[in-house]
């Protein structure tokens, strides 16, 4: 009996420590204050928050709310010239239930198009190659395309949207080892 209780106590302690760390990390990350102590804590927990998909930016609200509606689309061109479009999930096109489960993809696509995260682009392209590897003709080129349009403030009580613009921000030539 004694040998059973010790591992159980160790598990409970480990779970309690993990929960305490998790709660403190979320509080530290989400408090909308900028102090040297919080900045240092955020630097320490940044890898955990990014890995878990729990990072949060306050730019939706203030002081400078987003003024651009942006999304990413991938185009896969196969050896025979066929073009296949792959859309990253977009919240406005999903049901309420799907939004709940796919919110992390919105965050991912939002961060993907940031030039500071260019190191991710090749891995995303290779992933798309693997998704399309079973086509009759193998993928040859993958392009990541950002689409955006400005969100102007309403004028005279009416909102007038602008047509989206597009830019290829990464092009990847498929290598034979990517198809394995």
Describe this structure in words.
By secondary structure, the protein is of the alpha+beta class. The protein has two domains: 2-52, no CATH class; 68-179, no CATH class. The chain has helices spanning 2-30, 36-52, 96-112, 121-131; strands spanning 68-78, 83-87, 139-150, 165-173. It has a four-stranded antiparallel beta sheet, covered by helices on one side. Helix 1 (2-30) crosses helix 2.
Write the layout of secondary structure elements.
Elements: H1 2-30, H2 36-52, E1 68-78, E2 83-87, H3 96-112, H4 121-131, E3 139-150, E4 165-173
Antiparallel strand pairs: 1-2, 1-3, 3-4
Question: In angstroms, what separates the terminal alpha carbons?
Answer: 51 Å
The level of helicity is 40-55%
Poorly predicted spans = none
Mean pLDDT: 85
Helix segment tally: 4
Q: Report the biggest beta sheet as strand number plus sense, adding barrel if it closes.
A: 4 strands, antiparallel
- What is the chain-wise order of helices and strands? HHEEHHEE
- DSSP strand (E) fraction? 15-25%
Secondary-structure-based class equals alpha+beta
Q: Order of strands in the sheet with the most strands?
A: 2-1-3-4
Annotation, overall tally of beta strands: 4
Question: Quick recap of the structure?
Answer:
This protein has helices at residues 2-30, 36-52, 96-112, 121-131; strands spanning 68-78, 83-87, 139-150, 165-173. By secondary structure, it is of the alpha+beta class. Strands 2-1-3-4 form a 4-stranded antiparallel sheet, with helices on one face.
